[in-house]
């Protein structure tokens, strides 16, 4: 039996990049997957098509998790489609850097609304339905200890996420719901392409600092998430796994 057989997973921000790889990995391990997207319907549909063509179960559901009603609607869609929810992966995030001179209220709020409030709202909605053995996995970033220049607001969101995750691990533990964090290092995704990092001196710097000597790929992160979602990780909660090729 596949290690996630019979489980239902919701992956936010799963239309591309790390989220898409996570959705496919969870489906490969037997979970029925809700592929959430905010704006890229075509991307989410492509992920669903890849899963179903491989024999898995998946649906795409639109929703901006920074809006309470839409976060609630996402979880309700999962329940309506599959009858339950066992795993929530909070992957939705805005990846955007700005030098301190360029930080604006809009930049701050855009990042914190999705990267922090979105996690709270999606977890709040899911927690009503998660039972014993449920797993919440939050995608943070190694940037909280690498401390890259121009990443003040982004790193701030991930630092907040780490603290929130620790609190929720303790808060939900009496219900036997686990909460863990995965903190990727530099990963080649659509987001890092769009931000101009891929192919830049910044990327070269990240790789130079990485003991394993290469950039990360979305599948490198997806496998760690699939482990945390499974019963193999039943004794892990409140952990933050840095998946960075050895960057500390």
Automatic annotation (TrEMBL):
Keywords noted in UniProt: Oxidoreductase
Cited SUPFAM superfamilies: NAD(P)-binding Rossmann-fold domains
Coiled coil (UniProt feature): none
Matching NCBIfam families: PRK07231.1
PANTHER family: OXIDOREDUCTASE, SHORT-CHAIN DEHYDROGENASE/REDUCTASE FAMILY (AFU_ORTHOLOGUE AFUA_5G02870) (PTHR43639), SHORT-CHAIN DEHYDROGENASE_REDUCTASE FAMILY PROTEIN (PTHR43639:SF1)
Family, per entry: Belongs to the short-chain dehydrogenases/reductases (SDR) family.
Protein name as annotated: 3-oxoacyl-[acyl-carrier-protein] reductase FabG
Species of provenance: Methylobacterium thuringiense
Gene: fabG_5
């Amino acid at each position: 039996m596949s290690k996630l057989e019979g489980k239902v997973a919701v992956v936010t921000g799963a239309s591309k990049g790390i989220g898409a790889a996570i959705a496919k990995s969870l489906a490969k391990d037997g979970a029925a997957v809700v592929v959430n997207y905010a704006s890229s319907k075509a991307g989410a549909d492509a992920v669903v098509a890849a899963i179903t063509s491989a024999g898995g179960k998946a649906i795409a559901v639109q929703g901006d998790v920074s809006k309470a009603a839409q976060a609630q609607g996402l979880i309700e869609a999962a329940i309506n489609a599959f009858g339950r929810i066992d795993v929530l992966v909070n992957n939705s995030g805005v990846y955007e850097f700005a030098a301190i001179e360029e930080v604006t209220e809009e930049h701050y709020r855009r990042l914190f609304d999705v990267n922090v409030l979105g996690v709270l709202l999606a977890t709040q909605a899911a927690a009503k339905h998660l039972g014993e053995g449920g797993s919440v996995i939050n995608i943070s970033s190694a940037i909280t200890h690498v401390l890259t220049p121009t990443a003040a607001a982004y790193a701030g969101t991930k630092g907040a996420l780490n603290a929130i995750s620790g609190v929720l691990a303790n808060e939900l533990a009496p219900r036997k719901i686990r909460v863990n964090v995965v903190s990727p290092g530099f990963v080649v995704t659509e987001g890092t392409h769009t931000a101009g990092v891929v192919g830049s001196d910044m990327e070269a710097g990240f790789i130079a600092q990485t003991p394993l000597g290469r950039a990360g790929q979305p599948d490198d992160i997806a496998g760690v998430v699939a482990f945390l979602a499974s019963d193999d990780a039943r004794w892990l909660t409140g952990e933050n796994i840095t998946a960075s090729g050895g960057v500390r």
